Amino acid sequence: MRKAIVIIGIFITFLITYFLQANFFSWFTIAGIKPNLFIILGLFISLFLGVKIGIAYNLFLGLFLDMILGKNLGTYAIMLTVIAILGSYFDKNFSKDSRLTIMLMVMASTLIFEVGSYILSMMILNINVEVLYFIKILVIEIIYNAIITIIIYPGVQIVGYKIEDIFKGQKILTRYF
Amino acid sequence: MYNKKKKGIMGIIITIIVLIIIVTISNIKINNLSYAQGVANFFVMPIQNGLTYLKNWISGNNTFFTNINNLKEENEKLKQENSDLQKSLRELEIIKSENTTLKEYVNLKDKYTEYTTVPAYVINRDISNYNDTITINVGTKDGVEVNMPVISEKGLVGHIISVTSTTAKVQTIVDTSSSISCILTSSRDSIIARGTLEGDTLLKATFIPTEATIMQGDTIETSGLGGIYPKGILVGTINKVITTKNITDRYAIIDTAVNFAKIETVLVITK
Questions:
Q1: What is the percent of chain B with per-residue pLDDT over 70, rounded to a whole number?
Q2: Does residue B242 fall inside a structural domain?
Q3: Which of B2, B77, B88, B178 could be joined to B195 by an S-S link, Cβ 3.0–4.6 Å?
Q4: pLDDT tens for residues B180-210?
Q5: pLDDT band at A80, cuts 50/70/90?
Q6: What CATH number should be reported for the domain holding residue B189?
Q7: Which of B127, B179, B204 sits opposite A34 (nearest CB)?
Q8: What is the pTM of this model?
Q9: Residues of chain B with C-beta less than 8 angstroms from the C-beta of A32
Q10: CA count, 13 A, side-chain hemisphere, A1
């Protein structure tokens, strides 16, 4: 029951994230560049809910985004799934207590997500490749995502550990002892 | 423990302030420095007003203390009048906005009479920094199909890439996967206009014929080749021509006729 509530809660968070991204962050930009909140959300889902639920949820959210916004079905779905796998790797190897570590995780995830999406678009949609402009946008987006992480992580951490208790239960202890 | 928590909150507040400053500064245009003027005025003008009043008082032009009761009454009356005027202004603003939208529709229809069109509103924009698609509020119910061209009053917008019963997704011409066959209006030389990451209102003109004379300010329109866009729809104007050592590699930057950041109403050409 508690798990179901959390799953619904995360979907509501996803909708709020979508409307924030589509409305507020379409004008609250750094030099015209928007952050990508879905990468942050996808990473946090994987970090706190575990790899299986992380992959399932990110795949579902990715397909949802592909249907609303994508030019082809699959780019968001594939890359958010990659983020979920990456999140579980980070969870096993790094601490979630340090804000700096989390910030670096988000930066790495943004880099991998956007580079991967760009390569997929190059292959599927035959887009015009512009490496310099892509790097410029990517650098600003990574910095923007890192700043947002600094702001929201204390709140996410509190909620995240409670959710982690529900989903992972006593399994977490084996990691520390 | 308490101090650590306090420091953490302070850190978040400082980060938010820094973010707001970065966003504001990064989006400011050099010619939009009226804010700075406003700040300077805030500090200077009250003192300047005081000094002007003092100067007038010394030179015998002081009327401040004359009949303060009359002034109070007059002030109340003016406040009431101001309130009424503001109400009327709000009503007029609403009427003006409606009028503008209706005019846009009428102009669009008049301009493209040779085509059968369906008017639509833009209801969603792409959230990504790398794609430029928009969603409009018409779909298969209104006769809209994939690959139909979309135009606005100013010029070409893009074409439909997917459609549901009530909505349609439009790939704009500034999207990085967009390539359109165009011609220079004056010389009729053909070029390819591609979407670029450089800006929301810019296109890159490539495959310019070596013998073509291309100049800043030349207008570009669709050539009709490719099977999606009809011939003669305005795309934009040449902003600058970049010449390279090899003339076959030269390209030009096109300013699109449509401002994609502000586009609200469009027409889908159904026939």
A1: 80
A2: yes
A3: B178
A4: 999 888 888 889 998 888 877 889 888 888 8
A5: very high
A6: 2.40.10.350
A7: B127
A8: 0.72
A9: 26-27, 200
A10: 0
